[in-house]
Specification:
4-stranded antiparallel β-sheet; globular; about 25% strand; 9 helices; 6-stranded mixed β-sheet; binds adenosine-5'-diphosphate; binds magnesium ion; about 250 residues; alpha/beta
Length: about 250
């Protein structure tokens, strides 16, 4: 193997995101202790578990939105434990879309990039690409108030996409939508992942979302991963009664 192939092989082995021995406290409450998790490049990992089990806490720690009390977070081979969110090479989508009501869809999409030194032509290229992927082209001049819930959430996803980073984090992006829209957007997110091939960490308490989207599911309870396996494996061979009950019966 020459140096270049060696480098390529090393890159391929390297995890997209690695959480090492992570501990998080809220005041005196230990929400997470000694959490270890490695997510492969291009993987769609779903964090699944009941409300309050620590899914958002873990995602926010990876995003740099809260301080960790111990351990390390690595993204694309860099230790980012103390890096600012904007420097971590991630894009994040939240449950509430938090769009700017006075800005058009196009302005909402470009806002984050306009805060950086990205050249105007490059911003336009990325906004156009995201709008195309998410079928937002006819809506670019509208304001959030003139959009449906599903369209707003598409804009929120678009805002993360324009960053063109390798890792996307989703925190229950569909839970404010009705069942029909949820099913539609689920298919779109799956397609998006297939087209972009990037790494996704997706938080949900919805078993169907987890089963249909995930390459692997991390089933969480009380700040601890109970099982980390492919959906079929989790379903067919739940590691314990909690996993069996949670996957088996809709919450
Ligand atoms: P999930 O996203 O799985 O519903 P969270 O990560 O939001 O769970 O919360 C995990 C635990 O941490 C819960 O017990 C919650 O009450 C607690 N928690 C979350 N955020 C805070 C906070 N800012 N201050 C104190 N406790 C918090
Ligand atoms: Mg949450």
């Amino acid at each position: 193997m020459n140096a270049m192939t060696q480098l390529k092989a090393a890159e391929a082995r390297e995890s997209a995101v690695e959480v090492k021995d992570l501990g998080i406290q809220y005041g005196s409450l230990d929400v997470m202790k000694s959490m270890d998790l490695a997510i492969a490049r291009g993987e769609f990992l779903v964090l699944l578990g009941p409300s309050g089990c620590g899914k958002s806490t873990l995602l926010n720690a990876i995003a740099g939105l809260l301080d960790v009390s111990e351990g390390e977070i690595w993204i694309s081979g860099r230790n980012v434990t103390w890096a600012e969110p904007a420097e971590r090479g991630i894009g994040m989508v939240f449950q509430s879309y938090a769009l700017y009501p006075r800005m058009t869809v196009a302005e909402n999409l470009s806002f984050g990039l306009r805060m950086t030194k990205t050249p105007k032509a490059e911003i336009e290229r990325r906004v156009a690409a995201a709008a195309k992927l998410l079928q937002l082209e006819p809506l670019l001049k509208r304001r959030p108030g003139e959009l449906s819930g599903g369209q707003r959430q598409r804009v929120a996803i678009g805002r993360a996409l324009v960053r063109e980073v390798d890792v996307f984090l989703f925190d229950e992006p569909l839970s404010n939508l009705d069942a029909k829209l949820r099913a539609e957007l689920r298919v779109e997110i799956k397609k998006l992942h297939q087209e972009l091939g990037n790494t996704m960490i997706y938080v949900t308490h919805d078993q169907i979302e987890a089963m249909t989207l995930a390459d692997r599911i991390a089933v969480m309870r009380g700040g601890v991963i109970q099982q980390l396996d492919a959906p079929a494996e989790v379903y067919a061979r739940p590691r314990n009664l909690f996993v069996a009950g949670f996957i088996g019966s809709p919450a």
